[in-house]
Design a protein that fits this description.
heterodimer; A: seven-stranded mixed beta sheet; four-stranded antiparallel beta sheet; 11 strands; about 0% helix; about 45% strand; B: about 0% helix; globular
């Protein structure tokens, strides 16, 4: 089934530890995104990539890094986790970057629930 | 600043009609989206409006008034499976998506 696979589904992490959330898509979409979702807040963009080899900062990039070595994979790394990074993380992709006109629908992964203690 | 306002929670009865409102103040406008998100799951696309008026898609319709900074999602013939959160998002002049916090819709038998 075509779509986005995220791993892990859930993780409890000690503060100060390094963590990488994995994201793989098989739709050959050009653009990929990482969002965090917190109770009472809208989805907030962490980082994005309009095409393989390029990345950009979103609304809340501090403490996170990404890479886009190829079209399919877009891992998100927390270099030194802090409790405020406790959240549900969604990876998403779209055929074209949101900067282009048209509907440009986002397809989301199932999410990774991260708890930092 | 940019802002998307939606009611936090709404309750409706199975078989009825419900309207979920979304008002926005953004720097420019390049389209409005509605997504559905069941508890513990990923958001999924419902509708897209870029011009004023009503877009109908089966039991779901979405309306947009750009001059009023207003949209609504209309759900007809409500089913229990429609219990979910409904997210409104606006694409601003920089083509960035601004998301509302979502409206949790509870359907009662």
């Amino acid at each position: 089934i075509a779509g986005i696979t995220q791993a892990p589904t859930s993780q409890i992490l000690a503060a100060g530890r390094r963590m990488t959330l994995r994201c793989t898509q098989d739709m050959r979409h050009n653009a990929m995104y990482w969002y965090r979702q917190d109770l009472g807040l809208g989805l907030r963009l962490i980082h994005y990539s309009n095409t393989a080899g390029t990345t950009g900062k979103g609304e809340v990039p501090d403490g996170y890094s990404v890479s886009r070595a190829n079209t399919d994979d877009f891992p998100l790394t927390l270099a030194s986790a802090v409790p405020s990074q406790t959240s549900v993380y969604f990876c998403a992709s779209s055929d074209s970057p949101t900067g282009l006109s048209g509907a440009n629908v986002l397809t989301f992964g199932a999410g990774s629930r991260l708890t930092v203690l | 600043g940019q802002n998307i306002d939606q009611p936090t929670e709404m309750t409706a009865t199975e078989g009825a009609i419900v309207q979920i409102n979304c008002t926005y103040q953004t720097s420019g406008f390049n389209g409005l989206f509605w997504y559905q998100q069941h508890a513990g799951e990923a958001p999924t696309f419902l509708s897209y409006n870029v011009l004023d008026g009503l877009e109908e898609k089966g039991r779901f319709s979405s309306f947009l008034s750009r001059s009023k900074g207003y949209s609504y999602l209309l759900l007809k013939e409500l089913q229990m499976k429609d219990s979910a959160s409904y997210l409104c998002a606006v694409r601003d002049s920089n083509y960035q998506l601004i998301w509302g916090a979502g409206t949790k819709l509870i359907i009662k038998p």
